[in-house]
TrEMBL record:
Residues 583-655 form the Fibronectin type III-like domain. Pfam families: Fn3-like, Glyco_hydro_3, Glyco_hydro_3_C. Keywords: Hydrolase. PANTHER family: BETA-GLUCOSIDASE. The gene is umcelc7. GO terms for molecular function: hydrolase activity, hydrolyzing O-glycosyl compounds. Gene3D superfamilies: Glycoside hydrolase family 3 C-terminal domain, Glycoside hydrolase, family 3, N-terminal domain, Immunoglobulins. This is Beta-glucosidase. SUPFAM superfamilies: (Trans)glycosidases, Beta-D-glucan exohydrolase, C-terminal domain. Belongs to the glycosyl hydrolase 3 family. One of its GO terms (biological process) is carbohydrate metabolic process. It comes from unidentified microorganism.
Length: 759
């Protein structure tokens, strides 16, 4: 519907009707205005499947929803590094939404994995904002190509479940802009999600649901968001403040309480009715966009999507260890599948994204017809396994050529609503893996988890396959990968630390009682481990294959650019093995020089491409880097800024394996505003060409101030060398010149220099 017609409808509404539109009718529907022909619309939880509830509605997945297809969760799909595949998955989800008359699928969730402990990490893509943004943008484009909306969430800094509805995320502007905003920004600018869901938490003391800087200044004015903002379920604190800030829709229904508060505020002159009209306009624009493009006749082939889910899951699995080429397995060998997850896999997380699957396929079922025996090994509901259960598993392992243990985290360990308290797997599973490895040295572990786990047994097993939470067809995908029908090509979207205490947020995560301080700043995940030169269990971007790849021929289109230019990075990738396979070429940028070098990461992911190659085949792959690849956020100008200097461009297949490196010099076309005073120090002045020229006479006299090492006594010359004089000089404020110069420098002279420097 044209915007003018929407405005005409709103003009015919009473204030009470308009205020009513700003909250849900019930748990999942927006309100309508029947007398004016304004329809209600239905939204549904996602983001990797439909959790549409027809009858009893709830937020945490306690009550049943319709039978649907559960695709791999974001923790898995991010590992694919394949936005094209994820976009196709989005198309499938969009078709399901059209079939079920759903206007908006609530997702994707793009919050950064700040700590392995976050209970909702399985729903989030990565520790890296660029990877998160690319994958989220692809999923949004896929879903919305079917004329169904998405709701990118949770905006913003929602990185823990502990005290999630009251905690304040205390974070500086630079960290917000460089780590926690970019995925939202990229998705809004490149995919225009129909809606944005604001988070429960406060940001530096202000609830996200009533934060005008967040919802209006940044989201709408700066990024150009065109849809409506809805609250997370129950996230509204002050509804009137929310309307003023840019929160359009409160979900779920408020029972009319907050509607009346909006009406009262308008009548009392405390809230401009034009803001209420604007919220209505944004909501109805999306409601009618869906209604006018609704296609409930769209077929939903669940069986076909089940197979698609298996294809996606197989492409997401990460081969972490493959000692002696233990994988792929031989279909003619006797294989033991051990562990309850082999029969009943854990393939999704708990809470609002929990899908009521129309079918599931475990690895035992998928392996029918092969020479596979099964032993339960552990009870997923118990932390300890009976000795006879472990003994049975060990016996099965001993008889087999290879033993495969299916392990991971139980549902109770990872869920919306609370965080993990440690990074360990259940002790029963660790004991089982140790026992099986002792019975058969040819042991492989398949992991089902939403974020990193400790692996105390890693040195005793020959293979590890990370399946993440791979959706309802994960067993089918696992068998295809284990037996070589699919060559694994996933790469880790997060670092796996050796132990929880290594994580950069360890000392501050959670926060008591009012909030959590993001003291690690921009050093999240690999940015921290690389800066600290710290060993990890498995690095960001890491993933093995059943074949091998070689990177060569790194070329840059230019070796010197302005920050307004782009540079093209070209590299040749070759499959040097005997199997067809895929690798992920990753491009990292690092600031070699620069004023802010001390507080910048060693390297940051700025581009990637999944490349499929036949044995012996080579492909040349190109990437284009623009200003944002080299820029940092500067709070003094509240904008992105490139410090002139040299930048490294490294290419390889993980953050820790970057065999190719080239340098580019970037010249900034922007000058930071400078203001110097009596407390400005020499080191900072010397970095500004204009200021350096002005104070040059003072610098040349540094030796006279401190002593030049000549003419004095031997002891004096040893006490203050020329090098020491200059080193001390760099930290001196201008005011110090007055005292140290013995009258050679006057206040009038410094005032005159400051005047010239600040012109």
């Amino acid at each position: 519907m044209e915007i003018n017609k929407i405005r005409e409808l709103i003009a015919q509404m009473t204030l009470e009707e308009k205020a009513g539109l700003l909250s849900g009718e019930d748990f999942w529907h927006t309100k309508g205005v029947e007398r004016l022909g304004v329809p209600k619309s239905m939204v549904s939880d996602g983001p990797h499947g439909l959790r549409k509830q027809d009858e009893q509605a709830d937020h945490l997945g306690i009550n049943d929803s319709i039978k649907a297809v559960c695709f791999p969760a974001a923790s898995a799909t991010a590992a694919s590094f394949d936005p094209d595949m994820i976009e196709k998955m989005g198309e499938a989800l969009g078709e399901a939404c059209q079939h079920e008359k759903l206007s908006v699928l609530l997702g994707p969730a793009v919050n950064i994995k700040r700590s392995p402990l976050c209970g909702r990490n399985f729903e989030y893509f990565s520790e890296d904002p660029y990877l998160t943004g690319v994958m989220a943008t692809a999923l949004i484009k896929g879903i919305q190509s079917k004329n169904v909306g998405t709701s990118i969430k949770h905006f913003a800094l929602n990185n823990q479940e502990h005290r999630r509805m009251s905690s304040s995320s205390e974070c500086d502007e630079k960290t917000i802009r460089e780590i926690y905003f970019p995925a939202f920004e990229m998705a809004v600018k490149e995919a225009q999600p129909w809606t944005v869901m604001c988070s429960y938490n406060r940001i530096n003391g202000t609830f996200a649901s009533e934060n005008p800087w967040l919802l209006t200044d940044v989201l709408r004015k700066e990024w150009g968001f065109e849809g409506y903002v809805m609250s997370d379920w129950g996230a509204v604190s002050d509804r009137v403040a929310g309307v003023a800030a840019g929160l359009d829709l409160e979900m779920p229904a408020s029972g009319g309480i907050n509607d009346r508060k909006v009406v009262e505020a308008v009548k009392a002159g405390k809230l401009d009715e034009k803001l209420v009209d604007l919220c209505c306009e944004r909501i109805l624009n999306i409601v009618f966009r869906y209604v006018e493009n609704a296609k409930p006749e769209t077929p939903w082939d669940k069986e076909a999507q089940h197979l698609q889910a298996a294809e996606v899951a197989a492409d997401c699995m990460v081969l972490l260890k493959n000692e002696g080429g233990i994988l792929p397995l031989n279909k003619e060998d006797d294989i033991a599948f051990i562990g309850e997850f082999a029969e009943k896999p854990r393939f999704q997380g708990g809470g609002s994204s929990h899908i009521n699957c129309f079918k599931t396929t475990g690895a035992v079922e998928a392996a029918k017809g092969l020479k596979v025996t099964y032993a339960r090994g552990y009870d997923v509901a118990a932390d300890d396994a009976p000795a006879d259960m472990i003994a049975e598993a060990a016996a099965a392992a001993k008889k087999a050529k290879v033993a495969v243990v299916f392990a991971g985290l139980p549902d109770a360990y990872e869920s919306e609503g609370y965080d993990r308290t440690h990074m360990r797997m259940p002790e029963s599973q660790n004991r089982l893996i140790e026992a099986v490895a002792e019975a058969n040295p040819n042991t492989v572990v398949v992991l089902h988890n939403g974020s990193p786990v400790e692996m105390p047994w890693i040195g005793r097993v020959k293979g590890v396959l990370e399946a993440y939470l791979g959706g309802q067809a994960v067993g089918l995908a696992e068998v295809k990968v284990l037996f070589g029908d699919v060559n694994p090509s996933g790469h880790l979207p997060e670092s796996f630390p050796i132990k929880l205490e290594d994580n950069p947020s360890y000392l501050f995560y959670g926060g008591e009682p009012a909030g959590t301080e993001y003291r690690e700043g921009i050093f999240v995940g690999y940015r921290y481990y690389d800066k600290k030169k710290m060993d990890v269990l498995f690095p960001f971007g890491y993933g093995l294959s059943y074949t091998t790849f070689e990177y060569s021929g790194l070329k840059l289109s230019k070796d010197k650019i302005l920050d307004t230019d782009t540079v093209t990075v070209t590299v040749t990738v070759k499959n040097t093995g005997k199997r067809a396979g895929k690798t992920v070429a990753q491009v990292y940028v690092g600031d070699v020089e620069g004023y802010v070098n001390a507080v910048r990461p060693v390297r940051e992911l700025k581009a990637f491409r999944k490349v499929e190659l036949q044995p012996g085949e080579s492909k040349e792959v190109s990437f284009t880097l623009c200003k944002r690849a080299f820029a940092t956020w500067r709070s003094e100008i509240h904008d992105w800024f490139v410090e002139s200097g040299e930048f490294s461009i490294e290419v390889g297949d993980s953050s820790a394996c970057l065999p190719l490196k080239a340098m580019v010099t970037v010249e900034s076309t922007q000058k930071l505003p400078a203001h110097y005073d009596m407390n400005s120090i020499v080191m900072d002045l010397m970095k500004d060409p204009k200021a350096k020229e002005v104070i040059a006479p003072l610098i040349s006299g540094a030796a006279a101030i401190f002593g030049d090492g000549e003419g004095g006594s031997e002891a004096a010359n040893e006490a203050v060398t020329e090098e020491m004089s200059m080193a001390m000089m760099q930290y001196m404020p201008l005011r110090s010149m007055l005292g140290f110069s013995n009258g050679a420098v006057t206040g009038e002279m410094i005032d005159e220099m400051l005047k010239k420097m600040n012109e």
